[in-house]
Amino acid sequence: MITTLVVAAQRGDTMAMNDLLGELTPFLGRICGPIALDSGPDAVQEALIAIFRHLRELREPEALYGWARAIAVREAVRIAKRDGRARPEELGEVPSPQDVERAVDIRDVLERLSPEHRAVLVLRDLEGVPEQSAARLLRVAPGTVKSRLHRARESFRHAWRP
Amino acid sequence: MSWPVAELDAVRRLRALASAIPGAYVAERVIAAPFAVVWAVAGDLEREFGTFEPDMRDVTVESAGPDGRLVARARSRYGMRARFDVDLAPGWCWMQSRFLLVGLAATAVPEGTLVAQTGGVRVPGRAALVPWGVRPAGEKALARLAARVGERAS
Fold it and tell me: What architecture does CATH give domain A1-86?
């Protein structure tokens, strides 16, 4: 089904492009939301723009979601950094357990992390992407993914695993 | 405990879709009226579309699918007829014929309703528009839509 839609969209059928956009938007919203936070809607828009501009380059339509995920994560980090208050790329201050317990939802804790840390969390913990693939996607060394994930996960493990 | 999810409003959706169509221009305008009032005009294909879309004289809905997908016949000011596939939902209208594309979106904003329009003459069979005149046509359509909303409110 999704393959048929991609092929029709690649051939210039704008109704198929419209349907494909409808299929992808909730998926992209789940990726861009935790990384870009308040800039999430802009990140989804920019991710969709990048996806549709390059759709004809997608050789294997069945790889759509993995391909779209990579674009969305990069766009969400870019937009979050563009719009964000200046935050260190590396986590400067790990939230204390008391801070975590006080957090009313996961968003409070996400806001304390850099966009790069949030991207690692989304890829590894929300999307289940293997470490090597996450590192390739984020264009960093696998060790960096591991350390970012460790520090971020430590800081709010209790927040999402009560 | 739930992860934040980003929503895409209809105007952002239109910008994204239009970006994939070479030659397309997205005209935008804020109309100082509530969304429901604006969409009562903008989304009324048969009675209102021809009052603001410059090249549409009348539109007739011929069939409706269960997924909200419509098939419509439209006649241009120059008498040409075309069969359109239409996706119509609150705040969203996307229409495609062999030779034309029309997209219209609306979303509530603090000042009223943000509306966006794109469309024009299609390069046959392709997701591309002949670029001449798309910008003034889009802006004209939204100016007419704003005027029509004003007429209905008065």
Answer: Orthogonal Bundle (1.10)
